Structures are given as C-alpha cells and as structure tokens.
Amino acid sequence: MPPLPLSASRPASARGEFSDWTTQLWVKVTGRRFPLDQVPWLAGPVGNPAGIGSGYFDELAGAEGWTVRRGGPACGLLPDFGALAGPTFPAARVHRAVTDFYERTSAYDLEAWSEWCGLFRPFGALLAIMFSRRLQQLNVPLSPLDTSLGTTSEVLQLVDPDTGAVRLTAWVRHLRRTGHVLYAGSYSVCRVPGYPEPCVKVVFPLPNGNAIVLMRPEVDDQGALTVTSAGRRFGDPGFYFTVSAGSGDIWARYVRSLRESIRVYPDVDAGVRADHVLSLWGATFLRLHYRLRQRPEEARGAGR
Prior knowledge:
Blueprint: H1 18-30, E1 32-35, H2 56-64, E2 67-70, H3 96-103, E3 108-116, H4 121-135, E4 154-159, E5 166-174, E6 181-190, E7 199-206, E8 209-219, E9 225-229, E10 238-246, E11 249-254, E12 258-266, E13 271-280, E14 283-294, H5 296-303
Antiparallel strand pairs: 1-11, 2-4, 3-14, 4-5, 5-6, 6-7, 7-8, 8-9, 8-10, 9-12, 10-11, 12-13, 13-14
C-alpha cells in the first residue's frame, strides 16, 4: 500500500476552540518533536481546526486530487488480511468469518451497544460536550438509547486517479438517532520500532493533528482475533496524540495509561461480533459490543 498522507503536509492554521488549543499545548509540552520522516508510523490525516464531520475524507480527497470510491463488497478495512502475518501471529489461523469482515467490511451492517463504567460516566458526558459533538468525531454513545435506531457504516477508498492505487481507506460510522459521527478514521497495516511484527493502525483526525491507535494482533484456539493497543514506551503499540508542527515536523505524545482491546469472533448467524474494552490507568471505563452482520445478498455473493 502506498504511504498515507503525511501529518505535517497540511499546515496548522487557526488554533480553533480554547479546549482544542489546550489539548494541543499539552501534547507539545509533554511530548516530543520529530521530523515526520523519522517516525513514519505516526503519519496520518490531520483535521481542520473547525472539526472533522462526515465529509472530512471527501474534503481530503479533493485537496489531494484523489477520487473517492464508496461501497462495493470488495471494500475492506484491510484488503489483504494476510499482511498482518508474522512469526507469532499466524494470520491463516484466524476464523474465515473474521478475515472476511476485514476484507469485505462494506458488505456488513453494524449494530453497537455501549456501557460507561462507574465514575467514568460523567467523564463521557463532559468529553461529548467539550469535544466530540462540536468536532463530530469520537461520539461514543452515552446511553443505550443513542444506538436505539442503529448505526450506519460506510467504507471509503481514496484512490489516486493516475495510478489507480488506494492511498487511504477510511471507515465512517454515524449514530442514526442523533446523526453524530461515531468514528471517522483511516485503517492500515504498519510496523513500529518497538514491536517486531505488523500492527493494525487506526488514525482519527483531530484539529491540527490526530489520535493514532496501534494494535498488535493475536489469535486464540477458536480462531478469534484480538487486537490490543498497549506498550511500555514510545515506539511500542499503543495510543498516540500528534500535533502538526509545520515544515514536515510533528509533536507526538505516547499515552501509556490509555489502552484498548478488541476481540472479534464469529457470530452464530452470518457475520461476526466484537467486544471492545477501553481502560485508563488499569481501570475499565468503557465497554462496547458490536454485531456486524453480513447482508443476505452479500452472503450469497460471497458463496458463489
């Protein structure tokens, strides 16, 4: 896959809201500055100060001179699941239903449920008020009613019209009841210096920067896939904030205390389920459950 667009290739403009500016200042003060070519695994799309929203990837494609390819059963988050294979991760052992979801994501409908844990529930509401709703990014459901009307799921491929190469694959999800963007992120496979094998890389554009989640894959005896973002130091899999510094540089902050794990396994019906757990300083603060059901017409097509 060709490299993703560089985080620093779109210069920071206005600082945006004060809350965004203070978050970016925290990254600069507590993080480190790098030329992006020294940390290519932290390259990814950067958001505008005004926010992200459902049209972000269309705008990015227009700015880069790419075209947007939507849907189609062959539109997957990872076109070749085998790209994750390594000495300790035998990708061929992952259940076929799981690999099919990753390689044909647009053929699946999405349902989601969420549960905020204990004292973290008010934190989720505060995050929504200060950031998520305004930016239209990372609008994690605050109650089961938020997902009562379902969730949309759209996979986009940003394509170089001259070569036909896919430059970026994005997954955009909305909450039908509220219209808010649940997640808008790009997906790819990359290597990091602190882990010897390929990782799943997810980039969520934010104002003047992004949040990057790097997850190492594992497979169990039942063929279920678990991807985990956890490490000990900068350069390991885990969670990163970056802020564009201009001139090809970024500030980057590794957030060791924030971890997540997603277990994807076959459903009894056509499709898969996933259990998503996020923790901070070792305490679980959010659980999400997904059912990803293959549409009947796509299931018939896959069986031909």
